[in-house]
Design a protein that fits this description.
This protein has one domain. It contains 16 helices and seven strands. It has a seven-stranded mixed beta sheet with strand order 1-7-6-2-5-3-4, sandwiched between helices. The N terminus is likely disordered.
Length: 391
């Protein structure tokens, strides 16, 4: 996710100092940037929950990721960029980040994602209503200040989605069609002389297939903080079982890395003299390049988007972890982890017991709303309204 229109500047005008964040602002923002993030929490969440979901439900393949690209500029993070999978909860991004993090701890070569503030502002956009889960897992609100802070802190690489909200809101009829790019990631690449590492996400379009964007409905739900409402079979099913809204079908996710893009080599004038129009032209060239790579990767890796045979094999191999990877249990398992995780006790704090299950329900009773037909949404809405009112 990238920055909003207000932060994008105006056509024909230079990228002036008014859009450059001062060192003082960055210094003040450092604590906010780190406030909820815990490497220990993320690592444990990955090991006890997400690895089981990933290894069985999504069975990710990483093509060209045997070793992560080396930074061309050691003083600045790499900027990873990928396509959005339309009309679906962003499990493809979650799987990618967690798998890379599991390999790259400590986080110097790990990846933190810039995500839409809509996902963090509105409680019902957090997976299964787990407060601050996006932040705890290392995500950052996509603001100019946070982007600059990430680049200057240089603690991990950065992941962005150049299509922005338009990418996640595209319907199934526009699958694998990149929407126009925003330009904030180009500015950062030029300013810090760091490479953009494109990669193509394949089969994520089938997480929620045959779901479409009806513009009048999208306009309506955005007033309530939802970036889109996917009109399709899963949305219909979610009315009767709210947990379905947060999950997806078991697509075989494949991530294919591309060649580094050195935007700073495309520019023949000082950074602060660049205009928005010039950046848009560069962005369109990069979009077309990534579009071709995306289509090529789709032809190679997108033929068996569910690969049922590998799914059944994975389910059999991990049958002892059935309660952790099968979607109906995701709400309770994730909530159980969040309630019972204790960094001082380590893994022993997460041993599943009847007493801790009761503790989870007592502390987070709304997790039961995930399983209540229709009325569950009323409970979720009331809880979200109360949470937002408290600020």
């Amino acid at each position: 996710m990238v920055l909003d229109k207000e932060q994008e500047g105006y056509n024909g005008t230079p990228y002036r100092n008014r859009l450059v964040i001062s060192e003082e602002q960055i210094e003040k923002n450092r604590e906010e940037y780190k406030r909820h993030f815990s490497v220990q929490y993320m690592e444990a969440f990955c090991r006890h929950v997400l690895n089981h979901i990933s290894n069985v439900w999504y069975r990710p393949r990483f093509v060209g990721f045997d070793t992560l690209p080396q930074r061309n500029n050691p003083a600045a993070p790499l900027i990873f960029a990928t396509n959005h999978s339309g009309m679906a909860f962003p499990w493809d991004a979650i799987v990618f980040i967690m798998q890379i993090a599991a390999r790259e701890l400590p986080m110097k070569d790990g990846i933190r994602a810039l995500i839409s503030p809509m996902l963090t502002k509105y409680p019902y956009m957090c997976p299964f209503l787990i407060d601050d889960l996006w932040f705890k897992a290392g995500c950052i609100n996509a603001t100019l200040l946070n982007f600059e802070t990430a680049m200057t802190l240089n603690e991990s690489n950065v992941l962005i989605f150049p299509e922005g909200i338009e990418g996640i809101g595209k319907g199934f009829d526009k699958r694998y069609q990149l929407q126009p790019f925003k330009t904030s990631f180009l500015r950062m690449s030029i300013r810090y002389k760091t490479d953009i590492i494109p990669f193509m996400t394949i089969n994520g379009e089938y997480n929620n297939p045959l779901a479409y964007n009806w513009k009048p409905l999208t306009k309506l739900v955005r007033k309530f903080g939802m970036p889109f409402f996917p009109l399709g079979l899963l949305a219909f099913a979610a009315a009767f079982q709210p947990w379905i809204f947060y999950i997806s079908l078991p697509s075989r996710l494949t991530f294919v890395i591309g060649e580094p893009i050195r935007v700073y080599e495309f520019i023949d004038k000082p950074y602060d003299q660049l205009t928005q129009k010039e950046l848009k032209v560069v962005g369109e060239k990069i979009r077309q390049q990534m579009q071709q790579q995306l289509l090529d990767a789709k032809r190679t890796y997108g033929k068996k988007y569910y690969d049922i045979r590998s799914l059944l094999k994975a389910m059999w191999r991990h049958k002892r972890y059935f309660l952790r990877y099968f979607p109906p249990f995701w709400p309770f398992v994730m909530t159980y982890f969040d309630v019972n995780y204790d960094s001082n006790q380590g893994d022993s704090s997460l041993k599943i017991t009847f007493r801790k299950c009761l503790k989870t329900i007592v502390r987070r009773p709304w997790v039961l709303a995930m399983y209540l037909p229709i009325v569950g949404w009323g409970i979720i809405a009331l809880r979200s309204w109360w949470k937002m009112r408290r600020g």
